[in-house]
Every structure is written in C-alpha cells, then in structure tokens.
Write a structure and sequence with these properties.
single chain, 208 residues, alpha+beta, Ribosomal Protein S4 Delta 41, Chain A, domain 1, Structural Genomics Hypothetical 15.5 Kd Protein In mrcA-pckA Intergenic Region, Chain A, five-stranded antiparallel β-sheet, 10 helices, 8% strand, globular
Amino acid sequence: MARYTGPVCKLCRREGMKLYLKGERCFKDKCGFEKKGYPPGQHGQVRKKISDYGLQLREKQKVKRIYGVLEKQFRRYFERASRMQGITGENLLQLLERRLDNIVYRAGFARSRKEARQLVRHNHFMVNGKKVNIPSYLCKPGDFIEVREKSRDIVAIKESIDTAEGRGLPEWISLDKANFKATVNRLPIRSDINYEVQEHLIVELYSK
C-alpha cells in the first residue's frame, strides 16, 4: 500500500497543528512545528483566505494523517459510520480510534502510530490470546491486547512503555505494564479524543 514517505513535520505544519507523527520528538523543543509553525513552501507565511471547501478538505486530510489511512480506506470508514446509529462524525472518529494500531499507540506500546503499525505487522501483538497482524483490526470492549512473550525484550516497546504516562492514557483503555497488557474497557466517546478536529466538516464534504 502506498504511504507518504516524506518529512512528516511538513504535514503538521500544513495542517496548522501537531499531529504527533514523530513520537517523542513531538514533545520536545526540536519539534519542527515548534520551530516553524507556518505552512511549508515559499508562500507558507502568506495569509490566504480559505474557501468552505478548503476548510472541509483540510479537516479530512488532518484526520487521515493523524491515523495514517489512505483515501479509499478513509471513505470506507465514513460509509460505515454513516450507517451506524448516532452522529456520523463521532462514529467516524470512534471507528478510527478502535483500530489496533491506534490502541497499541494509545496504550503506550509504541511512540507513534507509524511505529505501532509496523510492530503489529511484524506479529508482536496478540488480541484475546490470538496473534493479530492487521493494523486496521477493530477492537471492541472487553478485548485485551498484549505483547507476545518473545517480543517483550524489544527495546522500542520497553522504552515506549516507560514513557507512556507522559503522553497520557485515555480513560477507555487500561494498561497493565507489568504484564505488557492493555484492555479496552469501553468504546471511546468524543470527549476521549483530544485532537482539534471539526468532524462535521468532513461529513459536509462527503455529503456533497
């Protein structure tokens, strides 16, 4: 699957907010967004009036980049969210939060979603005692995610768990650091997602 392989700090600058794509670096003064908080390119510091469509597009791109999904996959999530009961925008964010790679990151087993996706792909995690290597696997309440026994000595995972508290653990996930295990206590709700996202703009964009 095609993935963006360029400088990720440019993505944060383009969206005008930290997307936390570079792990620990995003929490330090070396963060590219902290140094240059304006869009990349030679006209980045020029203020431009953005159309309604432009605002809607930027919100969609922002959420896609936060969770590391491509357009076709993102549209499938939206279509599924629109068929669910409740508010479509909140349903969309809930589906993205339930991805296995996101939970691995949010629980503190990885320093970024990109690293979490790679660890899942390389068979380092189990869900309910069974090996799962699909980053888009949707977890549900009661599921427990644990690091495989032979993978618990991986330096990246151990260092990430040690610094997990500094990044914050969402209320809908509980972490057992001693046993390298995280449990999904409930479905995430809108207040659990602390990104500055206006999901209704995404709904407006796809509803045209």
